[in-house]
Amino acid sequence: MSHQVTVMTRQGCSGCVKAEQDVERICAELGVEWTTADVDSDPEWRGEYGDRVPVILIDGDEHGYWSVEEDRFRKALADA
What is the count of structural domains for the chain? Predict the structure, then answer.
């Protein structure tokens, strides 16, 4: 099964930049597609995720926030 990873971000968020770099590296190694979405582009996203960015979603479900826990993230992507 292939997963889809989304990093919920916001402009000017240094933690978001670090999370995107981590996700990009890990997903490239594992061959997993990923994308970003700006929480401030949608009022629902801002309300849901705005106080915890970056938020990592796997297949639309919240996996974690504020930073990438690499071992846990890799395990979640390896699980089919």
Answer: 1
- Return all residues near 33 (Cβ < 8 A) that are at least 6 apart: 2, 3, 4, 5, 27
Domain extent at residue 63: 4-78
Read off the tokens for 8.
Answer: 């919920």
Q: Are 37 and 50 in contact (CB under 8 A)?
A: no
Q: Looking at residues 45-49, what average pLDDT do you find?
A: 95
Tell me the CATH number at 13.
3.40.30.10
The reported pTM is 0.92
pLDDT digit string, tens, across residues 6-22: 999 999 999 999 999 99
